[in-house]
Write a structure and sequence with these properties.
It contains six helices and two strands. The protein has 135 residues and is mostly helical.
Length: 135
């Protein structure tokens, strides 16, 4: 499941990065930031990437995520995307800062018995296979 989670995350990164082509840096950075922050509260399953790869994010009590839980879960990933507001070098800064965050979260996910990264622990969430009726 870790590989699927990584690919789901990459899909979400591509979506957030596509917002950076909006010619107004402040707007593009803000939209990318908001997408990364709220992405797991957008649908019943979580982000677009998770939906494509048949994963879903749930609270530890088995409930769908609220926007508050999505914010807690994803703030660490949203912060690098705010660099897109800086013209020209913003994308490079987002990538550099993001890579550090991504490696730390991947190591946390690998060391957790439930596959939780730090954001999951902070929000009380877990990523799991989507039920059959979603597929």
């Amino acid at each position: 499941m870790i590989i699927r989670r990584i690919f789901a995350f990459l899909i979400d990164i591509v979506i957030a990065t596509l917002f950076s082509i909006i010619p107004i840096p402040f707007i593009s950075g803000l939209i990318a930031f908001l997408y990364m922050l709220l992405r797991d509260g957008l649908t019943d399953r979580g982000s677009i990437g998770k939906g494509i790869l048949n994963l879903q994010v749930m609270t530890l009590s088995g409930q769908r995520l609220s926007y508050e839980e999505s914010i807690r879960r994803n703030i660490i990933f949203a912060i690098p995307s705010i660099f897109y507001i800086i013209p020209l070098v913003g994308g490079i800064l987002a990538l550099l800062f993001g890579l550090i965050v991504y490696v730390i979260e991947l190591l946390a996910m690998n060391s957790s018995p439930k596959g939780q990264r730090n954001g999951d622990r902070w929000a009380g969430t877990v990523v799991q296979d989507a039920p059959i009726y979603y597929r």
